């Protein structure tokens, strides 16, 4: 291949890449957006304050055991519109793959089995991707 063919093919490749980059960038961005996992809790009437506090402490400790958790917040609901959901947790994940890994992680499954199921009467989970506020 002579220099002119090389330059022509290189220019064509750069042009194709330049046209594909915005779409590819959006796809990559969507796959790497932060994901927020929120769970609202209603506890059984037999749940003790200590058991609820222990659950919240265990949730706060999850980032030490499960990779991909960026931040944890949890606590008692202070809204008068709570519909009997007394506590909430929010976990922020690096991306959807980290959330998927969390769902299958032994520490998460143990938390559900040992600390959530014995004291929770109802829960409401929500997962969503954090989307940019600008176009």
UniProtKB/TrEMBL annotation:
> Which SMART domains does its entry note?
Dabb
Please list which residues make up the signal peptide: 1-20
**Gene3D superfamilies under this entry?**
3.30.70.100
Q: Which UniProt keywords apply?
A: Signal
An example of a Pfam family matching this protein is Dabb
Keyword Signal in record: yes
All residue ranges annotated as the Stress-response A/B barrel domain in the record: 35-128
User: Per its UniProt record, what InterPro entries does this chain match?
Assistant: Dabb, Dimeric_a/b-barrel, HS1/DABB1-like
> Tell me, how does this one assemble?
Homodimer.
Q: What is this protein called?
A: Dabb family protein
Please name the source species: Pendulispora albinea
């Amino acid at each position: 291949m002579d220099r002119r063919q090389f330059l022509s093919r290189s220019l064509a490749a750069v042009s194709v890449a330049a046209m594909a980059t915005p779409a590819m960038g959006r796809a990559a961005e969507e796959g790497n957006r932060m994901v927020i996992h929120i769970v609202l809790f209603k506890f059984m009437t037999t749940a003790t304050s200590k058991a609820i506090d222990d659950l919240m402490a265990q949730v706060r400790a999850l980032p030490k055991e499960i990779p991909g958790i960026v931040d944890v917040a949890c606590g008692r609901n202070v809204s008068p519109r709570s519909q009997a959901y007394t506590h909430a947790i929010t976990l922020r994940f690096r991306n959807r793959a980290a959330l998927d890994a969390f769902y299958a992680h032994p520490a998460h499954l143990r938390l559900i089995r040992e600390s959530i199921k014995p004291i929770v009467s109802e829960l409401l989970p929500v997962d969503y991707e954090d989307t940019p506020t600008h176009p």
